[in-house]
Amino acid sequence: MDDVERAFREAHGQAVATLTRLFGDISLAEDAVQDAFVTAVQRWPRDGVPDNPPGWIVTTARNRAVDVVRRGRRGRELAEQVALDRRQDSSSEDAELMRDDQLRLIFTCCHPAIRTEHQVALTLRLIAGLTPAEVASAFLVSEETMAKRLVRAKYKIKSARIPYRVPDEAELPGRLRAVLSVLYLIYNAGADDIRNRRGLCAEAIRLARVLVKLMPDEPEAPGLLALMLLNEARMPARGGGDDVVLLKYQDRSLWNRSLIAEGHQLVLACLRSRRPGPFQLQAAIQGIHCAAPHYGDTDWPTIVRFYDRLLAVMPTPVIALNRAVALAEIRGPATGLTMLDEIAGELPEYHLLHASRGSMLERLGRREEAADAYATAAELARTQPEIQFLRRRSEALEREV
Amino acid sequence: MSHYLLSVYETENQVEGAPSTPDDMQAFLRRVIALEEEMDKAGAFVFGGALHGLDAATVVRGGTGLDKVTTDGPFAEGKEHIGGFYIIDAEDLDEALEWAKKVVEAINHAIEVRPFRATGRLQDGH
């Protein structure tokens, strides 16, 4: 990515957001910003990147949108009003207003009335400023399919009149959780497919940083950022996308210390606000893993305590599974297995349930059953490295039987 | 303001969660009456009603210049069909969803919210 592209991508969400407020139409805003990009590609390399790229893009895109609207039948009035209201340069646009624009757009893209995969697509396209082709490759679908999906999502916003606003205080926790979940989905899509979609991790982290800045009083936002950073820090020790390297066997000298330090700082700061939420607690757990110099030094009792608190705010079988695995480190594999069997009925299709059962059975010396559990897990796993890893475990155990 | 259709879907003429005892029925009616009053006061109530079952439905087919054929029964043979609806007036989807949640609370059943593309009589020039 060159300088123009990078500067443009960073200003994209802001520009689309402000244009959407001015013109009340996301598609018009998106097209005008795209046109401004074409102009930027021509001018910036020649004249240099402007001092205030978002201001330049908003001004250029606004002029462009005014032209487009003027050509429309009933647009003249609106165009003149916008031109009149905003005669001054955009760099003097109220900073707070522009900040709210970005939040409004984020909450609109992640509105619960929009299906999750469309929320993710809209967020990547409009907020993160990926091209439709890039969004398509992030989803591993054709550009045509993605274009249709984006059109449908924008049609829903417009036709159902999904409001362009920040939710009020009563709704905010639930709505913010939806936004954070979208960012986390984007992060995990990249982390699960390091070979092809690694860039999504960086995009998710960038968007989380934007959100932390926009909502400094909401501890779940830095909680999510910390969770991503602490995962990201361990990425170099995870086998480069060809293999699975379990936490236990990771070369901890490969972990990124500065990301861990930043993650730890964020965890401590947000936990201090005493409004713990699912992302803060998950970040705290990852923080404890990252703090251990060796696997054997891991503070399992504290991790289990955090899982207890997490389970209280987010009682899902996946959290119960993770808690069982952590507890097995203290009380042994027999206890772990009993707990896993208790939740097995709720997660019959989840490969990590079977992989965890396999691990407990293996540690109990029940090799045949362990091999079966790993084989089931391999059948249910979705990524190639996981499938291979689980198959190998299963086959190795079968040979030993 | 925009119009939204809030439709209650029945499954084979049964609304899941519908009141089964006379006491339940009384409580159900009180909730619905109170909600409709609230909608009316807020200026959101446009129209509402409950429909007879599918056995009462008739389909008319044909087209411009074609003979019209009437057949007994519903248009779509399926387990689920609309049993009743409200048409409400709301500022945006969030406001419509607020009413939708209250309807769900009152009738104890899922509903579908759809925006109108156009309302009223079609005028020349549209």
UniProtKB/TrEMBL annotation, chain A:
Pfam families: DUF6596, Sigma70_r2
A Gene Ontology biological process term: DNA-templated transcription initiation
Domain DUF6596, chain residue ranges per copy: 175-267
RNA polymerase sigma-70 region domain sequence ranges: 9-74
UniProt cross-references to InterPro entries, sorted A to Z: DUF6596, RNA_pol_sigma-70_dom, RNA_pol_sigma70_r2, RNA_pol_sigma_r2, RNA_pol_sigma_r3/r4-like, TPR-like_helical_dom_sf
Lineage: superkingdom: Bacteria
GO terms assigned for molecular function: DNA-binding transcription factor activity
Segments crossing the lipid bilayer: none
PANTHER family in the cross-refs: BLL6612 PROTEIN, BLL6612 PROTEIN-RELATED
Protein name: Sigma-70 family RNA polymerase sigma factor
Automatic annotation (TrEMBL), chain B:
Entry-linked SUPFAM superfamilies: Dimeric alpha+beta barrel
InterPro entries associated with the record: Dimeric_a/b-barrel (IPR011008), YCII (IPR005545)
Signal peptide segment: none
Spans traversing the lipid bilayer: none
Residues covered by the YCII-related domain: 4-115
UniProt record similarity statement: Belongs to the YciI family.
Protein name as catalogued: YCII-related domain-containing protein
The species this protein was found in: Kribbella capetownensis
